[in-house]
């Protein structure tokens, strides 16, 4: 079975692999583009890149309802335990773990990570998922950084990168990120959720395809691609 990646808008992905449902940064309630509600989405594992509300989102509610395991940095994992989440797995930057369905490693991200109640959320992160021989790099919220080149050396099949500007990389730096990572395919995210991060993904896709070897997959919220 292929790895299926569904974009639930903003930074939220549902990755389905070998029968496991992996949900990343489930910001659904209060997200005007969310194609699914927090009480409908299913997850076996939830990944939280940092503490901001548009990434922590509905993590606590979904984890409790689905009895899902939440994977995040150690500080967020501690906070989630305090919120009554039963199953958590702490990782930290540079560290990976072999789960029953595949491996995940945390990468650096240049951003903040305060939790919704102001608690310290450690350092923000991105994720590399190693699933069925495919590698997915979800950059999450970050500015451009040259070490993306190191991540790219692993041979990334799909890079998921923000293009919204204002809080993260904008289109120009996201293009430079693609040049550093050199992935086979790119999925642009973290745009058009709010007016302040409005972008035209089609014109960005055209420029990326003209200037790099990557194929760009522009999805509508709720649409999927397969690897
Ligand atoms: Ni953020
Ligand atoms: Mn964000």
Rounded to the nearest angstrom, the distance between the terminal CA atoms is 9 Å
* Relative strand content: 25-35%
What is the strand arrangement across the widest sheet? Answer: 6-5-4-3-2-1-14
Mean pLDDT value: 98
Give the beta-strand count: 14
Task: Find the CATH superfamily.
Answer: Ribonuclease Z/Hydroxyacylglutathione hydrolase-like
Verbal overview:
The strands form 2 sheets. A 7-stranded mixed β-sheet has the order 6-5-4-3-2-1-14, covered by helices on one side. A 7-stranded mixed β-sheet has the order 7-8-9-10-11-12-13. It is globular, with a radius of gyration of 16 Å. The chain has a single domain, classed as Metallo-beta-lactamase, Chain A. Helix 5 runs parallel beside helix 6. The termini are close together. It is an alpha/beta fold and 227 residues long. Strand 11, helix 5 and strand 12 form a beta-alpha-beta unit. Bound molecules: nickel (II) ion (NI) and manganese (II) ion. The site of nickel (II) ion has 6 residues, from loops.
């Amino acid at each position: 079975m292929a790895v299926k990646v569904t974009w639930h808008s903003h930074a939220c992905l549902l990755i389905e692999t070998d029968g496991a449902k992996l949900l990343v940064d489930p910001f659904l309630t209060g997200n005007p583009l969310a194609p699914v509600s927090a009480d409908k989405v299913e997850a076996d594992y939830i990944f939280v890149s940092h503490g901001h509300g548009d990434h922590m989102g509905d993590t606590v509610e979904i984890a409790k309802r689905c009895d899902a395991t939440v994977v995040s940095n150690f500080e967020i994992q501690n906070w989630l335990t305090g919120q009554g989440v039963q199953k958590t797995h702490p990782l930290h930057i540079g560290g990976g773990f072999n789960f029953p369905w595949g491996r995940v490693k945390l990468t650096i991200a240049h951003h903040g990570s305060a939790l919704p109640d102001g608690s310290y959320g450690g350092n923000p992160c991105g994720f590399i998922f190693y699933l069925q021989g495919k590698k997915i790099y979800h950059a999450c919220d970050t500015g451009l950084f040259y070490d993306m080149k190191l991540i790219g050396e692993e041979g990334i099949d799909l890079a998921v990168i923000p293009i919204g500007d204002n809080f993260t990389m904008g289109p120009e730096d996201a293009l430079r990120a693609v040049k550093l990572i050199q992935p086979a395919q790119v999925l642009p995210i973290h745009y058009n959720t709010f007016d302040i991060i409005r972008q035209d993904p089609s014109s960005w896709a055209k420029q990326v395809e003209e200037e790099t070897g990557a194929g760009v997959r522009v999805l509508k919220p709720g649409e999927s691609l397969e690897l």
